[in-house]
Specification:
There is one protein chain. The protein has 101 residues and is mostly helical. The chain has 6 helices and no strands. Helix 5 packs across helix 6. The longest helix has 16 residues.
Length: 101
């Protein structure tokens, strides 16, 4: 698969399109087809010290986990989150500014 992608590559940055064409749209992670509604509210509450999390808090957890999985590659992390790299970058900058205060 990698050899094929590199062989078809013509110039610039190697696109993920070749890999996506071969892999298809199957879920990457086990259980990805399961609905998020299956997540127990109690599990979320336990993660946040006995209270239901705010959207911003959940956003930060998802971003952190996506960056861990992607080895800090923002392009891959953004893809995992279903947002653009620019959108992820804006969220990271906003969080960093908030930390600096």
């Amino acid at each position: 698969m990698v050899f094929d992608a590199v062989a078809r590559h013509q110039k610039g940055i190697l696109s993920l399109k070749s890999f996506k064409d071969i892999i298809g749209s199957e879920p990457v992670f086990p259980g990805e087809k399961e609905s998020l509604s299956r997540v127990e509210a109690a599990d979320l509450v336990n993660l946040f010290n006995g209270r239901f999390p705010r959207l911003k808090e959940v956003e930060q957890v998802l971003i952190s986990e996506a960056l861990k999985i992607a080895a800090n590659n923002q392009g891959i992390a953004a893809s995992l989150l279903g947002i653009s790299r620019n959108a992820l970058n804006k969220r990271l900058v906003r969080a960093e500014k908030k930390k600096a205060r």
